[in-house]
Each structure stands twice: as C-alpha cells, then as structure tokens.
Amino acid sequence: MIISNGVKNFADKLLEATEKMKNPSCIGLDPRIEDIPDFLKGGDITETFFDFNKMIIDATYDIVPAFKVQIAFYEKYKVEGIKAFEKTINYLKKKNKIVIVDAKRNDIGPTAEAYSSAYLSPEGFDVDALTANPYFGIDGLKPFIDDAIKYGKGIFVLVKTSNPSSREFQDQTLKSGKKLYELIGEKVNEWGKNTKGETGYQIVGTIVGATYPKELKSLRKVMPQSIFLVPGYGAQGGTIKDIIFAFNKDGEGAIVNNSRGIIFAWKNESYSKRFRPREFHLAAREAALAMKKELLSALSN
Amino acid sequence: MIISNGVKNFADKLLEATEKMKNPSCIGLDPRIEDIPDFLKGGDITETFFDFNKMIIDATYDIVPAFKVQIAFYEKYKVEGIKAFEKTINYLKKKNKIVIVDAKRNDIGPTAEAYSSAYLSPEGFDVDALTANPYFGIDGLKPFIDDAIKYGKGIFVLVKTSNPSSREFQDQTLKSGKKLYELIGEKVNEWGKNTKGETGYQIVGTIVGATYPKELKSLRKVMPQSIFLVPGYGAQGGTIKDIIFAFNKDGEGAIVNNSRGIIFAWKNESYSKRFRPREFHLAAREAALAMKKELLSALSN
Questions:
Q1: What are the φ/ψ torsions at residue B226 (nearest 5 degrees)?
Q2: Third-level CATH fold of A3-296
Q3: Are A254 and A228 contacting, i.e. CB atoms less than 8 angstroms apart?
Q4: Segment B57-110, tens digit of pLDDT
Q5: Cβ–Cβ below 8 Å for B135 and A112
Q6: Residues 83 to 122 of A: which have CB under 8 A from any B CB?
Q7: What is the DSSP letter of A174?
Q8: Is A168–B83 a contact, with Cβ atoms under 8 angstroms apart?
C-alpha cells in the first residue's frame, strides 16, 4: 500500500475493502419519506432519516465495503436534512465503511475549493470520496484532485450518466471523431495519471451508468486504471449482463451502486410478501446478499 | 404581466425589478471568513456570516434588485453554514429582493426533483431562481423547469462559464460545426420557448461569463429571449466593455453579478484608505453605486 506522508491512497483503500469483503458493490442511502415504513415516522426528518439509515447500515455493514450517500435527498429538507446527512456519515465512519458522497459538485476554481473543503477536508464532512461534474474543465476539478491527494481521498467524475437524455450532450460527436464522453474519459486518465496507488488504480474515478453497456465496455478498454462507480443497476434498468463490462478482466476496478433496490426492497413484490414493514432492514440485507451473489457469480464466469 | 394560476412569470418579475431600480446588477453574497472584518468574529459561523450579510444587505438593498447567494461558501461550514444560508435568504425575502441561489445542481431526473424541491418549492428554501448544470441533458433539467413554471421561479443554465478552462469541453467543435456551448444555448432557447412572460423573456436563463466577450456577443444574438446571468465582472477580470455584449440592443436582458468586488470592497486599495473595517458595508455601498453608474453609463452609449 503506497502511503505518502502517512496518507493512504484512496484507490488502494477501496480495492482492499472490496477484496476483503469479496463484494464490489455499494449501497445508496437515498431516503425518501414516502418509502420509509410508518413506524419510523413521528419525529423530525433528522430522526426519521437517521433511524432508517442506521437500521439499514446495521443490517448490511458486514456485507458491503462502501455506502454512497446522495445529498439531494437530504438537501430537500434543508437544515434538518443536512443534520441527518451528517449523522449518517459519522455513523458510517464509526463502522469503518467507505463513504462516497454523491453531490456532483462543480464550479470555478475558488468556489470548487469551498466545495472540496466541505466534503474532503478534515474540517468538512471528511468523507472518502465525492462525485463531481466536469463541465468547467480541469480548473474546476483541480481543487478536488489536490485535496484528494492531500487527504487520501478520491473523486468520481461524471463521464457517461445513466439517464436516457445523457445522449443529448455526452454523445455528441466532436470534430475529432470522438464523442464528448470519450474525450472526458481521456482527460480523466490524464488528470489521474500521477495519483496511482500500489494497485495501479488512480484516485480520479469515473461514473458510467449501467444502462449503457456498450459505452461501459469501450470506456473500460481505454481507461483501465480508473475505478468505475456504476449507478443504474436495479431500479434504473441496468442488468448484471450490462454491469459486468465495468470490470477489468481480473474482475477488479469497479464498484456497483444500488440504492432503491436495496433500501426499499421491502416494498418490492418479491420481498414484501416475506417481510413486514418493521423488517425492512432484513429485506435490505437479503437484497444486498442477493446482489453480492449475482455480481460474484457473473464475475467468476 | 402574465400571471397563470396566480403565479407571476419570473422573467417579468426580474425585469420589472431591474427597471424599477434602474440597475441590471446583483450582489453576490459569498462570505469568506478570512475577508470578514475581525469585529464580526467571535460567535459561530452562522452568526458571523449572517451579521456580515445583513450589514451588506442593509447598506445596498435600495440600490440592487437582486442578490446571488453562492451556496458553496456556506456548505463549507456544514450545518452551521447552511443555517447562515437560510437566515440570509429569509432576510433577503423580507427585504423583497430577488434571490438567486448559485448551486449549479445537476443529476438524473428523480434526484433533480429533490434538488428542485429543495430550492424552488414552497417547502424548500423557496428562492426565486437556481443555477443548474446541463451535462445530464433535458431529463436532468426538466424537474427544475417544471417547478419554475409551477411556482413562478427561474433557472439559469450554465452555457459558457467564466473560468479559463471552460474552453476544455465547452468550446469543443462538434461534427455539425457548432461548438458545444452553442448547442447548449440552442437547447436553452428550445426548453424555454413556452415559458415566456409579457416582456418576451423566458424563465430559462443562461449563464455566460463576462470573461468571454466574443462568446457573449454571439450567444446574445442567437438567444434574444433568454436572460443572461453574467458572472466574472470585477475580480475575475471581466470589464464593462465586455459586459455590455450581454445586453440586447434595448439595454435589457441581462443581470451582471459582482461578489468580491462589492462585499470585500473594504479590502481593495481604492476603498481601504477611506473606510475602516467597521465601515465595510459603506465601502460595499459605494462599490455597488459605482457599478450601477458604470453599467448605466455604458448602456446609454
């Protein structure tokens, strides 16, 4: 494990954790009040969201190496929501889990510095990794990369997103013949080339939706050393057959996220017959185990 | 003034305010602890930031129609910062000012809905307008546009940003011969075409940096009905000669932001000789008046 100034490389840390748990997946903690069992309601949003998340974490932390927290669902509830966000993050840290904040932040350099400090610095939420939008070009991303190097953190840059209209701009063919997302992928390689750890992976990762298997496959080929964070599995329609393209041939290099399919499994037909609302966390555990099994089985073929 | 279901069109509301105050500019409330006079420090960040902002607002609200609040500088301080953000917004509303939150939010549809609710809905911060990043394409922006129509709000979409490396992706020439930012500009026109108010302007606005006058000029020509929010004036190097291209020939259609040049005017050489730290708000007032004068003079030529 390469350690510079006592700081562990994020890519090494993430891969060590996925290997140790034999599970390259993460759970998305994206609470929606309408999908939380009634017995948890009654208090304020801080309490309801944290109690819900805590039960999910307690039921799954021995299965998954990492959790992804989508801040939009907390921001929606202003200060009360951000308090739940912070409590959740602190609890995940206490459980020694890798915490990825999905915030897709982006701005000009001096403002990006403030965002980076908010999430990656010891004075901020101090999580392991943050997602970022590349539209500003390198000077809007450099503050995140610099802090990631300094504090042993990672960033995941949007390259090809999982939604239908990601085609609108990301798939534009440039004069050079490349698509825009391919150019951004190349730049991610370049930005991260001096940030590699012992595993050979860099701390500048890539977001590619599971809903675009062809693009996953072609990006994986040209970006062998960037870790892919793959959303879109489950509720958004990405299947295991698609997801598998996110991994390198040795079965490494990707982490697959599932949010709704795990945390709200208790509302899916296949689980709701067997679990009562009070057992939502047990349904989440079963869904997390099923996902792990599905991924490992596909990777061993 | 077109009012549908009792909801006033945001473009009409903004232009009415800029005309009434004869000032197409807004002040950016982007507090940085190191630039705040010492006499305001001592309490927590909520108190320090709000006290600072309140003194700026009290000293300038009779000059400018709108304020832009960059959330990154508040997010940096987690819950304490967001409390200052909320107090500032509520105070601006009490003063009947137009509040633009600069957050550049972006995500897939269901997540964008949560962000949109956070800022534009009556249950959220309920501000007048929000900035957004277009990388996801229309389905990531539609939730913001829908809420803007429903609640009488506006959005400003990043088209050409003010930073040096905005060239890296935004200026890529597409196979069609257009640049990426030009394509996004066209899409902004299209997305907003059914949202025009009595003034003819749409509620889907555009962000174009003052640091790119050539691009400002060409975009203004092809986007006559989108309001331009123009950052980059002052500290970032955009001059009045550049800014003027943001306006239509009738002198309408743009709002120019200045953050550091106004709120930290007391630290600029030209003001620091005449104002003590305790008079920082008076320096801000003078800088706001100077900006108004400069804009009006340039527009009348």
A1: -105, 135
A2: TIM Barrel (3.20.20)
A3: yes
A4: 999 999 999 999 999 999 999 999 999 999 999 999 999 999 999 999 999 999
A5: no
A6: 83, 86, 104-109, 111-112, 114-115, 117-118
A7: B
A8: no
Which pLDDT score, from 0 to 100, does residue A74 have? Answer: 98
Q: Domain residues of chain A, as ranges?
A: 3-296
A122: left (phi over 0), alpha (psi -120 to 50) or beta: alpha
Cβ(B14)–Cβ(B66) below 8 Å: yes
Which pLDDT score is estimated for A1? 44
Neighbours of B34 (CB within 10 A): 6
In this prediction the pTM is 0.97
Q: What share of chain A is helix, strand, coil (3-state, %, to 5)?
A: 50, 20, 30
Residues of chain B numbered 28-47 and touching chain A (CB < 8 Å): 30
Q: Is the pLDDT of residue A210 over 50?
A: yes
ipTM, 2 decimals? 0.97
Contact B139 A163 (CB under 8 A): yes
Predicted confidence (pLDDT) at residue A35 exceeds the cutoff of 50: yes
* Top CATH class, B3-295: alpha beta
Task: Please say if the pLDDT value at position B1 is more than 80.
Answer: no
Burial B147-182 (b: 16+ CB within 10 A, else e): bbbebbbbbbbbbbbbbbbbebbbbbebeeeebbbb
Of the candidates A184, A104, A158, A172, the residue with the CA atom closest to the CA atom of residue B180: A172
Helix (H, G, I), strand (E, B) or coil at A227: strand
Of the residues B29, B44, B75, the best mutation for testing chain A's interface (the one with the most A CB atoms within 10 Å of its CB) is: B75
DSSP string, B98-146: EEEEEEEE---HHHHHHHHHHHHSTTTT--SEEEE--TT-HHHHHHHHH
Give the separation between CA A11 and CA A9, rounded to whole angstroms: 6
Strand partners, A291: none
